[in-house]
Amino acid sequence: MRILLVGAGGVGDAIAKIAARRDFFELVVVSDYDITRAERTIAWIEARGENRGRFVAAKIDASDPDNVAAVAREHGATHVMNAVEPKFVPTIFAGAHAAGADYLDMAMSLSEPHPTEPHSLTGVKLGDDQFAQAPDWETAGRLALVGMGVEPGLSDVFARYAADHLFSDIDELGTRDGANLVVRDEAGNEIFAPSFSIWTTIEECLNPPVIWEKDKGWFTTPPFSEPEVFVFPEGIGPVECVNVEHEEVLLMPRWVDAKRVTFKYGLGDEFIGILKTLHQLGLDKTEPLRVRSADGPVMVAPRDVVAAGLPDPATLGPRMTGKTCAGLWVTGTGKDGQPREVYLYHVSDNEWTMAEYESQCVVWQTALNPVIALELLASGTWSGSGVLGPEAFDAKPFLDLMALPVADGGYGQAWGLEDRA
């Protein structure tokens, strides 16, 4: 397996660091528009004696499918791993296909709200553009494994596992994400600093959330709807969660039988207030505006300005404390015919991820899962063609490899199952 990793930001950097401790691949090309970021990641790996000639840096333009294809061909890439903003999905997706490589991402092609009834009807849904191209990937005999991060990704693996091993009938698949993370400035004051890409956070939080119900299909609600307090494990505790647009709701119903699918995120009042303010001021927009500068008029997207003004999430680790939890709440009828309610989850502790990988816990947890998926594809345990989500594959090998101790050839990352009925 020869992997072209597109993007050496927080998640891309963590993917490379995690992969460096594994032996399932021949080469990882760490690529970025700023090649110095790719070189920095490789230098970290090299300093720990984990390169062994398996990592090289390359410059890439993720917005140009021809350039993506050219870099993939130059290095004989068999798999293209997309680790940049979802706005680049179409071009990287096209470049991988043109190069004859398989493709993985952690976030899917972007949505467009319904033009007249955005808070009740779907418009263009997350991933619609990619699923429309599924016949092309099937004809080529190539695989596009989409939504293979943590959420979406691990949460979708949990859905497959619940359907196959825990439930005979599922009422709701509800992804629930919460944390007790705190970021402080140099003086020790708590500050607003999103632990993941603010560009992506704005996109998923301010777009109309999508819900799926068996008798209605996909429909939308207003942002931040249906607040609920969900109790997260391992000391995180109760967090208020709200509906947010997310890929799980668009992926799970395609492969897993359930009556309802939702996604709720623990944002907190301050975060929700800031997002609402950004929207009121038009600072969430992606269309460039004409702005005066000392060098003359320039075209700038307001959302890019917001992103540029906040700390890079990849740099927050030293100033962050706490844990983040990604998981799936499932209700329905157990295999024994009795009502059942469970929460399947994985917790990532920032103190541990910083000590082990110098990566903050949110980006590290996201990066873990595509590396496991790539290893399963390399071994032939997972295989397929077309555009497929994580639910299309057997969950047990993934979860077994994830939890197996490092000394025994696994990743040493235990996942939890709480019965809550």
Word description of this protein:
The protein has 421 residues and is an alpha/beta fold. It folds into two domains: 2-149 and 364-413, Rossmann fold, CATH 3.40.50; 154-361, Dihydrodipicolinate Reductase, domain 2, CATH 3.30.360. It has 14 helices and 20 strands. A hairpin with a 6-residue loop joins strand 14 (289-291) and strand 15. The model has no long low-confidence stretch (mean pLDDT 94).
Concise summary:
The chain has 421 residues and is of the alpha/beta class. It contains 14 helices and 20 strands. Helix 1 crosses helix 13, helix 3 packs across helix 4 and helix 13 crosses helix 14.
Please describe the topology of this protein.
Elements: E1 2-6, H1 10-19, E2 27-32, H2 35-47, E3 55-59, H3 65-74, E4 79-82, H4 89-98, E5 102-104, H5 128-132, H6 134-140, E6 143-145, H7 154-166, E7 167-179, E8 182-183, H8 198-206, E9 210-213, E10 217-220, E11 228-232, E12 237-243, H9 247-255, E13 260-265, H10 269-280, E14 289-291, E15 298-300, H11 302-309, E16 320-321, E17 323-334, E18 339-349, H12 350-357, H13 361-379, E19 386-388, H14 395-403, E20 416-419
Parallel strand pairs: 1-2, 1-4, 2-3, 4-5, 5-6, 6-19, 7-13
Antiparallel strand pairs: 7-17, 8-16, 9-10, 9-13, 11-12, 12-13, 14-15, 17-18, 18-20
Helix pairs in contact: 1-13, 3-4, 7-9, 7-14, 13-14
